[in-house]
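SAMPLE LOG
Freezer: B-3
Tube label: C17
Construct: single chain, 409 aa
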Amino acid sequence: MSVLKGMRVIELASERIAFAGKLMADMGADVILVEPPGGDAARGYPPFIDDEPGASRSLFFMHYNTSKRGIVLDLDSEADRETFRQLMATADVLIESEMPGRLESLGLDYPDLQAANPRLVHAAVTAYGRQAPESRLPTTDLTLMAAGGPPWSCGYDDHAIPPIRGWGFQGYQTACHYAFMAILTALLHRFQSGTGQFIDVSMTAALNVTTEAASYTWLVAGETVQRQTGRHAAVAPTGDTQMQCADGRYVNTGVPPRFPAEFGRLLAWITELGMVEDFPEAVFLEMGANWDGPFDLGQVGKDETVTAIFMAGRQALQLIASHVSAYDFFSGCQRAGLSVGVIYSPEEAFEDEHFKARGFQVPVRHHDLDRDIVYPGAPYQLPASPWKISRPAPGLGEHNEEILKLLQP
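STRUCTURE (predicted):
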């Protein structure tokens, strides 16, 4: 049974919060997308089906609004505001990203809605939080990411090249994850207390606490991490992990061997490839294979033997990568129990057989197009809480009539 089945969520259409609504809708909640007359601007965002712009052809809008129902309401109209109030009286959750002060000016803010529905959980997602003056300034995913901090840690060893923003509206998505988690927590609290609450989500704060070590390294040690190619940012540069394979493609070698069995499998792989005679450091792999217990990475650079064994593992990976294709390197490391990855484009990652085997590709029937569209699946697998795309994104005002019937006495 879907964990959120029976929950009604009202979402005021905005690209900033669409992912939070999608997470709830695909987990079984009845998410009603409230769009203004003319529809959400995201309906016009590329890319489009078959690269042909047009109504209901935005893949962006389709992806972020699966499993939702849709209604058109003009909140600047008193009649539609009254309809919205009636709808909110039936709701469990409101998700919105309106400019601070707008809902208050319309008589639709949390105090107004909570008076009629004390169980309501209201999540407001703004740039810096409801009370911050900066939240009234125009922002984009790019400026939020820059202010929150993640791009500082993303990019290349060559710092003449600027920092890199994560692709795909990661700023909005990060804030949506925090909003989603906060909503679930508030629903658990409501289950015990019977009352709802207001949740104030700061997008920049959500981004700042997802900067890995960058924020707390500065706050605790007063030091600044530096971005590095294909590896975690660090105060002091670390060794290269990105390598070119025999077919010209690149891989991230990930975490080198740390356990005796991993050193043993790596040594066996080099032997199988006929490289052991050309790799004098193989003696250190053998020492690692016979090591007593896990490898203490904290001794790298301090203990000569530990350092030699660790470096031999990394050098062995570099040697193998230079003699095999990127995919063969990836597959061999999988067999050896080592975490590595081929550097894919998004399209290549989506078509990878591992993703397919995990059911990440989900065909969804679009009756208006008389065809299936393949969607990305869930970012997680929860056996006790099934996930499903129950319907494509709604057409503009598609469910007006059936939603309005909910409000009839």
